[in-house]
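stage 2 :: seqdesign
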């Protein structure tokens, strides 16, 4: 029987790569994005594209009703934010928390009942390698992702009794994803006063990292997490994430 995976945030980046990998390996994929774009995947078989705003209870409820039973949920949708924390407007703080933290929790709440009743299912929460080290200019982003790390560990224990598995995938730095295309406010606007001198070498390192993570590496690690039966919780993805995890 073909299994079904529901992935949030599939318009680009890790979500798109993950959808393509699971499609290529015979799964049915429910790909979600705020504004579905049929050109993202073309005429792929076994693909359903549905709208989703993870900050809206109504949108989540409509998605779950339309998607039907799912074997795997991948919480990938997220926003980025780099800059001096003191300069971040409260609206930006709320938006990142609503999307990266509360949105993930809300999606978990939405699928847990069906998985618990079936006594099977897997939830994969995509966090970030910022949870593996202390990174300057990433305090807000780190906070939203660290919350999901702790949440996932506890939830894994809570749902194991019902045969539902919870996993965490921790992608390394990919210039085209979280901190770039998904940033709410350009970093230049979040460096007040004399932060520029402090931030310059950090931003140069972001622009020319020694190691970067490929989207395909994250998709492959999500595949590994979905198929893990050994009780492993965390899956660092990409060479920089692996190095951080090993150092830790």
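stage 2 :: out
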């Amino acid at each position: 029987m073909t299994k079904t995976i529901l992935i949030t945030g599939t318009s680009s980046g890790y979500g798109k790569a993950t959808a393509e990998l699971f499609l290529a390996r015979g799964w049915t994929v429910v790909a979600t994005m705020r504004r579905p774009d049929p050109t993202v995947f073309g005429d792929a078989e076994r693909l359903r594209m549905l709208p989703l705003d993870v900050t809206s209870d109504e949108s989540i409820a409509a998605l779950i009703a339309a998607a039907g039973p799912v074997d795997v949920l991948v919480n990938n949708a997220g926003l980025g934010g780099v800059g001096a924390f003191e300069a971040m407007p409260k609206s930006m703080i709320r938006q990142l928390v609503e999307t990266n933290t509360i949105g993930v929790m809300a999606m978990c709440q939405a699928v847990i009942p069906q998985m618990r009743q079936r006594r099977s299912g897997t939830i994969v929460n995509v966090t970030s390698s910022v949870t593996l080290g202390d990174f300057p200019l990433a305090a807000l982003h780190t906070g939203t992702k660290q919350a999901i790390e702790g949440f996932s560990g506890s939830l894994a224990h809570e749902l194991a009794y019902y045969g539902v598995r919870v996993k965490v995938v921790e992608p390394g730095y990919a210039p085209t994803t979280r901190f770039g295309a998904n940033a709410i406010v350009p970093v230049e606007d979040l460096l007040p006063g004399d932060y520029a001198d402090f931030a310059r070498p950090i931003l140069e390192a972001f622009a020319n990292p020694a190691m970067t993570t490929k989207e395909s590496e994250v998709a492959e690690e999500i595949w590994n997490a979905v198929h893990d039966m050994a009780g492993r919780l965390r899956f660092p993805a990409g060479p920089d994430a692996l190095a951080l995890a090993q150092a830790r």
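stage 3 :: structure notes
- Helices lie at 13-24, 57-67, 90-118, 139-160, 195-207, 215-227, 239-247.
- The chain has seven helices and seven strands.
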